[in-house]
Amino acid sequence: MTPSDTTTAPATYREVFANPVFRLLFGANLAAVLGTTLRMVALSLLVYDVTGSAFLTALSYGAAFAPQAIGGVLLGALPDRLRPRPLIVAGHGLECAVGAVVALAPLPVGGGLLLVALLGALTPAFRGATSKVIAQSLQGDAYVLGRSLAGLTMSGGQLVALAAGGLLVAWLGIPGALLAGALCHLIAALVVRLGMPDLPAGGSAAGTLVRRSWSGTSVLLRERAVRSLFLAQWLPPAFIAGVESLVIPYARARGFSVTAASLLLAALPVGMVFGDLLMGRLVRPAVRVRLVMPLMALAGIAFLGFVFEPSLVICAALLALAGVGNAYMLGVQGRFRDAAPTVLIGQAFTLLGTGLMVLQGIGPLLFGALAEWTGYGMAVTAAGGAAVATAVALWPGWARSDGHLPVRAGQAPGK
Question: Nearest 5°: phi and psi at 121?
Answer without folding.
Answer: -65, -25
